[in-house]
Amino acid sequence: MHELPEHLRADVEALWDYHNMHHDLRPCDVGVGLGSHDLGVAIHAADLFHQGVFPRIVFTGANAPTTVERFPRGEAVHYREHALELGVPDEAILVEPHAKNTGENIELTRKLLASEGIEVRSLVLISRPYQQRRAYATCKKLWPEVDVICSSRPLPLADYVRSIGDTKRVVDMLVGDTQRITVYAERGFAIPQHMPGEVHAAYERLVAAGYTSRLI
After folding, report:
1. What pLDDT is recorded for position 71?
2. Are residues 147 and 163 in the same domain?
3. How many domains does the chain divide into?
4. Contact in structure between 39 and 82 (CB atoms under 8 Å)
5. For the segment 153-181, what is each residue's pLDDT rounded down to a tens digit?
6. Which of these, 186, 178, 180, 184, lies nearest to 202 by C-alpha position?
7. Same domain (yes/no): 96, 81
8. Is 1 within a domain?
């Protein structure tokens, strides 16, 4: 199934828009591509590099159960290879191949850049579209002094669903990330984020509709 069910579209759109931080891009010291099943992260990172938004990219990520078949050598390794194919020079890419979650993405990237003697005052966090808010909240918790801009491949929701090729997977991930905004802040993994009532109501309706495979 590659199309959103019409009766769920408004609720899915509400979550989709909530997770987009709507940050304006500006030049930063480094771009950080967060590993996932979505090769669009590497594509967008390469695009921003070629636009001159940052002079260096860190790709970070090992494997998750959802990515090991697609990226058997690790998310960051495959992202690097794709960025090279898109014309990013090898010397502009660093690979952090060990992170298994967003917190480790941030912490291990920070350590890698420090070990390379690279001072970072600002960065662009490049992620799946629906991961922006959680990535931002995690980064501000673990690396509070850095100026963070979130960015994703600028696809409308319907186009993104088609690019992934699995509607239920995308909606399940959206629902799971919405839950994590609250749960991770409560657990001290991320800073709190305001969630409007209409977003929470949309989340509850999608849970009731059975989009629950990514819930904690």
Report:
1. 84
2. no
3. 2
4. yes
5. 999 998 998 888 889 999 999 999 999 99
6. 178
7. yes
8. no
Residue whose token pair is 């941030």: 106
Q: Do 144 and 174 lie in a common domain?
A: no
Query: What pLDDT, in 10s, does the model give residues 180-190?
Result: 999 999 999 99
Q: Are 118 and 160 in a shared domain?
A: no
Shared domain check, 29 and 91: yes
Q: Using the structure block, give the residue that is written with the tokens 């979505």.
A: 38
| Same domain, residue pair 36 and 124 | yes
List pLDDT tens digits, range 106-135. Answer: 999 999 999 999 999 999 999 999 999 999
Extract long-range pairs of 83-91: CB within 8 Å, 24+ residues apart: 83/42, 83/45, 83/46, 83/49, 83/57, 83/59, 86/42, 86/43, 86/46, 86/47, 86/50, 87/46, 87/50, 88/45, 88/46, 88/49, 88/50, 88/57
More confident residue, 69 or 190: 190
Assigned domain for 99 exists: yes
* Neighbour-count burial for 92-104, b at 16+ CB within 10 Å, e otherwise: ebbbbbebeebbb
Cα–Cα distance measured from residue 2 to residue 164, given in angstroms and rounded to the nearest whole number: 8
Q: Where does 111-171 show beta strands of DSSP type E?
A: 122-126, 147-151
Global model pTM greater than 0.85: yes
* Strand intervals (E) in 15-65: 30-34, 57-60
Helix and strand numbers (H, E) in the chain are 8, 5
- Specify the CATH number for the domain of residue 46: 3.40.50.620
* CB 2 within 8 Å of CB 169: no
